[in-house]
Amino acid sequence: MGTVGPHSLAFGDIIGLFEARNPGVRLQHREIQPPSPLDLIRSGEVDVAVLWLPMGEPGLTAGPVVSTSPVLLMVSATHPYAGRDSICLEDLGDCAVVQGQRIPQDMEETFNPYRTPAGRPVRRGPKVSTWQEALTAVASGRAVAGVTVDVADFYPWPSLAFVPIRDAPPCQWALVWRTAADNPLIHAFARAATDIAAATGDPSVS
C-alpha cells in the first residue's frame, strides 16, 4: 500500500526470511488502495495484507505488527498549515479531509478523524478511489489527509507539504488475513515477522 511494504526495511527483511525458509513458495505483491483497503483481502485475491490498525472487522485476523510510524498531515504547499512546525488534532476542525470509498470508521479515524478532541466535526472533502487520486486532491488544495511519515520521503512533490501532528497516536501496520483462510503458510509469514523483531530488537515490529 503506497510506501508501506517493499519500501520498509523491516518488511523487506520479513519477506527475505520467509522466502529463505520456504524456497518452493512464490510470493506475489499486489497493490492495495487505501480508499478501499479491505477489498482484496475480502475477495480472496490476496492471502495476507499489510493494513493499518485498529482492525476489528468480523472474519479478519490481525497478526503481528510489522511497522509503526508517526502520523503527519499532508496538505497543499499553499495551505495555511504548510509553513507550521506542527499542528494538533484540534486544528483538523478547520480542514476538509479526503474521503475513501469503503473504509471501516475505526480505520478511517486513525488518519482522518470525524471529530476533534473538543468535539468539533471534521468536514469531509472529495471522495477518492485510489492513492494517486488522494495525492492529487491534496495537491490541488481541495482537501488534506493524514498520512504516515514515510509518505513525505517517497512523495516529495513541490505541490505538497507535510506537517507533524504532535498529539496524534502513532500508526501501527499489521499482517491481516481472512480467519476462514487460515493456513500454515500464513503462520510461517507471521513467524518470520516476529523472528525479525526478536533478531533486530526493532520496537516497531512485534
Question: Can you describe what's shown?
Answer:
The protein contains six helices and eight strands. With 206 residues, the chain is an alpha+beta fold. It has two domains: 9-66 and 170-200, Periplasmic binding protein-like II (D-Maltodextrin-Binding Protein, domain 2, 3-Layer(aba) Sandwich), CATH 3.40.190; 71-164, 3-Layer(aba) Sandwich (D-Maltodextrin-Binding Protein, domain 2), CATH 3.40.190. The strands form three sheets. It has a three-stranded antiparallel β-sheet. Helix 3 (105-111) links the parallel strand 4 (96-99) and strand 5 (123-127). Helix 1 (9-21) packs across helix 6 (184-200). The radius of gyration is 17 Å and the shape is elongated. The relative contact order is 0.26. It comes from Nonomuraea angiospora. InterPro entries: LysR_subst-bd. Belongs to the LysR transcriptional regulatory family.
